[in-house]
Amino acid sequence: MQPILQNITKTCSGVILGKEPQIRLALACILARGHLLIEDLPGMGKTTLAHTLARTLGLEFRRVQFTSDLLPADILGVSVYDRNDASFKFHPGPVFTNVLLADEINRATPKTQSALLEVMEERQMTMEGETRKLPEPFFVIATQNPATHIGTFPLPESQLDRFLMRIELGYPDARSERSLLSSGSKRDSVENITPCIDAAGLIRLQQAVGRIRVADPLLDYLQNILEHSRRAPQFETGLSPRAGLALKQCAQAWAMMDGRDYAIPEDVQAVLPGVADHRLRGAHGASPANALLEAVLVP
Questions:
Q1: What whole-number distance in Å separates Cα of residue 34 and Cα of residue 26?
Q2: Phi-psi region of 66 (alpha: psi -120 to 50; beta: other; left: phi over 0)
Q3: What CATH fold (topology level) applies to the domain 2-209?
Q4: Is the pLDDT of residue 141 over 80?
Q5: What's the pLDDT tens digit per position in 25-49?
């Protein structure tokens, strides 16, 4: 499994230059069957990363540009009256895919944002009393601009908690940026990517993540992290049980990417910022995940 995962990371790194740590985190999120939120300034490669991951994993990919006038039906689908059959026929929306890219999700109104709550949690959608299952695998990769930008609607806590992980790409290092300036944008090369795996293969990898051993001492470590986040005065709110499960699953995925069949505290620490930062609220404006990480580092 490790050679396949290394090949996926290498392929993505050929398009998203100098961002291997972020690519590994994104892949760990997908292996843990979670949804990914990428937050950064415009032009940092958020959409390109999402498209690259979908192509590399051999998955069907659909993109929805979120705007203030976008409606829930534009995402989920709509029933249209068919005069020939004298009945309503459901036309599936773009959510019926393997990878849904919700581009600039925080530019849509809260009503439209909430259309994703059920599909992200249950991997199904209910409309007009009928429940329809989504394809497997299914996950959402959402991008958002900083909340201080004009025309954004902050995601509510219930929506943020649906995302297993949030990452930032940041500016490229000097070497990667020079390569980008010399060769031009890599976006055109995304369509030429040869998939490293297919949907069935990804499902097998996701199932293998659940078999990564997590010993009782590591479960104690995870519980201590959760308890500290709930009791420490520097946090207004602590991590939920769902966040604890997310932390465990991402640690298992990170261990598998490193070629181990067991998780260790360093796996938890590697994924902790991505899993915890958007779920915690710092009391004094500092990065809550970094403060939590410093408190729980193994000596």
A1: 10
A2: beta
A3: Rossmann fold (3.40.50)
A4: yes
A5: 999 999 999 999 998 887 788 888 9
